[in-house]
Design goal:
By secondary structure, the protein is mostly helical. The protein is built from 13 helices and 5 strands. It has a 5-stranded mixed sheet with strand order 4-1-2-3-5, with helices on both faces.
């Protein structure tokens, strides 16, 4: 009962469902993956180029903080030194920030791929509803996010505490080192600790990425009714399509019946088949089949022909051969030319006898229908 009412989402998402979700910006994303990539990138850069950055920063401070007595009394000097310090600081920081920005962008598309949609920027007033926010916080998703946050704090805190105990003696021994060596030593310790702390997020990533993929797939799942409704939207309602086909067939049949009075001859079975042929004596083509049918349709064709005084010729084998081998408004096949010519010759002789009062010709009886066309 629940399944029929559309409550159980048991069906895999269709291609249209996935495409629509991407247009709405609903993709699997992992904050933990983005955080891990960004932290690892910044830690690696700090580990490999931290000393260079530190030397550049010291050089900048020497240039900007060491000046002569004359400079102190120069009103324009502070602005000049500030501009120089800003330019040198930017030249040191910008490459580091640029790499971090690129890493963050790449991390964002590692799961779910690149996707840009304007629907994600549209204002949705339902998101401003405080009850909706409370439901999210108290719902399963909110509980999972809380568990992740607690796990993250416990993991990072435990690793940080162990790193601190491990390097405690090193920190205590810094007072015995010269300033340059102490700074260099501290930088190395900090870089190493940052890499280890960033690597701890890998455990969270290994848990969060599969969960985000599963959760996104769960939200995309469909009920059986949704699949049926989507199929109707894409392919059309079968009842409507059937009605359209009936209307098309009825219109085609009306056009076919309208062509019967203009035919030259009706070849019959004589009761089960009826085929209407039209021949343009002034043209270069073969006779054309303008109408055909069986049983009730054949009877209707014969009645229209009698009303329009179109000759009826009983030729069972030819009628069946024409019915099965020739479509509407197509020329009769070459193999039936001789038999059709015999019928048309009889029809033209019949017209002449009626017009001039001649004796009526004898209908053809021995028509030449090849075995390949016999049904």
């Amino acid at each position: 009962m629940a399944e029929e009412s559309g409550q159980d989402k048991t069906e895999d998402p269709t291609g249209k469902r996935v495409t629509d979700s991407r247009k709405k910006g609903q993709l699997p994303r992992s904050k933990e993956l983005s955080t891990f990539v960004t932290l690892m990138t910044s830690s690696a850069m700090f580990f490999y180029i931290g000393q260079t950055m530190w030397r550049d920063m010291l050089e900048m401070m020497r240039h900007t903080l060491q000046f002569s007595r004359d400079v102190v009394f120069d009103p324009a000097a502070p602005v000049i030194y500030l501009k120089a310090a800003f330019a040198e600081g930017v030249s040191v920081i910008v490459p580091f920030l640029a790499v971090l920005i690129v890493a963050d962008l790449l991390a964002g598309v590692m799961l779910g791929g690149w996707n840009f949609t304007s629907e994600a920027f549209q204002m949705k007033f339902s998101k401003l509803n405080p009850l909706t926010g409370v439901k999210k916080i108290l719902g399963i998703q909110g509980v999972i996010e809380l568990i992740k946050a607690i796990l993250k704090v416990l993991l990072v805190s435990s690793v940080a505490w162990n790193l601190f105990k491990w390097h405690f003696d090193d920190f205590m021994g810094l007072s015995r080192l010269p300033v340059d060596q102490a700074v260099h030593h501290v930088g190395g310790i900090i870089a190493f600790c940052l890499i280890i702390l960033s690597a701890t997020f890998l455990l969270l990533v290994m848990l969060d990425v599969p969960y985000q993929l599963w959760n996104n797939q769960r939200h995309l799942k469909m009920t059986k009714q949704e699949v049926r409704d989507e199929s109707k939207d894409q392919e059309g309602n079968p009842e409507v399509k059937g009605k359209i086909r009936q209307m098309q067939m009825a219109a085609a049949q009306r056009r076919m019946m309208d062509a019967v009075p203009s035919a030259d001859v009706i070849v019959t079975n004589p009761t089960h088949f009826a085929v209407a042929l039209k021949y343009d004596q002034g043209g270069n083509g073969a006779p054309i089949l303008v109408a055909k049918g069986t049983d009730l349709v054949a009877s209707h064709i014969r009645q229209l022909a009698l009303t329009a005084k179109v000759p009826l010729v009983a030729a069972p084998s030819l009628a069946r051969a024409l019915y099965y081998s020739t479509e509407l408004n197509q020329e009769v096949p070459r193999g039936l030319f001789l038999a059709v010519a015999q019928v048309l010759a009889y029809v033209f002789q019949l017209r002449a006898s009626t017009q001039y009062g001649w004796s009526k010709p004898v209908p053809p009886t021995d028509l030449s229908v090849p075995d390949d066309f016999k049904q």
